[in-house]
Amino acid sequence: MRKNRMKKVVSVVIVSLFTGLSISVSGCSNLQGDNLQENKNSRAYVGESDNAEDDAINTLQVGSKYKIVTPMMELKDAVVEILGENYWPDALLTEEEMAERTGISSYMYDNFMAEYQHSEAGIDMMIIIETKEEYIEDVEKYLNDYREVLLNIYEKQPQSKAKVFASRIEVINNYICYVQLGADISPLEMAGEDEMVAYCQHENERALDIIEKRIMSWES
Fold this sequence. Notes:
The protein is α+β, with helices and mostly antiparallel strands. The protein has a domain at about 70-220. It is about 35% helix and about 15% strand. The protein contains six helices and seven strands, in the order H-E-E-H-E-H-E-E-H-H-E-E-H. It has helices spanning about 50-55, 70-85, 95-100, 135-155, 160-165, 195-220; strands at about 60, 65, 90, 110-115, 125-130, 170, 175-180. The strands form two sheets. Strands 3-4-5-7-6 form a five-stranded antiparallel sheet, sandwiched between helices. Strands 1-2 form a two-stranded antiparallel sheet. Strand 1 (about 60) and strand 2 (about 65) form a beta hairpin. Helix 2 (about 70-85) packs across helix 6 (about 195-220) and helix 5 runs parallel beside helix 6 (about 195-220). The longest helix has 27 residues, at about 195-220.
């Protein structure tokens, strides 16, 4: 089930942490043919529909656009359904970009989604990693180290600091989730850091609750 523990920060050089990152296709070396079969242990997307190019957004390239793979789309959709307009992440990291930011390499997991808010001041983020059993502790440690790096970066920015401080890293079976949500907390800034943190913690817990329910439903 879920757990959450902080670990000691290590030196991690995060290059191009907040530069504009172009979205590119995530590793899909095993894709064959035009029609792909659904496989929850694969990064491949289910067979492309006639209108796939219109609604594609990331990971598997369809024309010049991309689409998130299953089962990550199901988890993201569940969070968006709960948070609505308060879900602000809108751009996805490739395997290479996630490795650059967090140190987590593709050999450690079977599937992942890392989505962040693509704006200069954006800090909202959600990372879900279907981790290989032998790397669960390593991936959790890398995410905690990444969180510590962000805390240092945003030390003097009250709203961003509150969001990072309120972020949650949870292990749900072999899925590891980093949720750093909250949307617009500017009206709470005058009330102080505690109020901003409490609000963001509530939003993160809502997201984690629905993620856990969906993952556990796959196991039943």
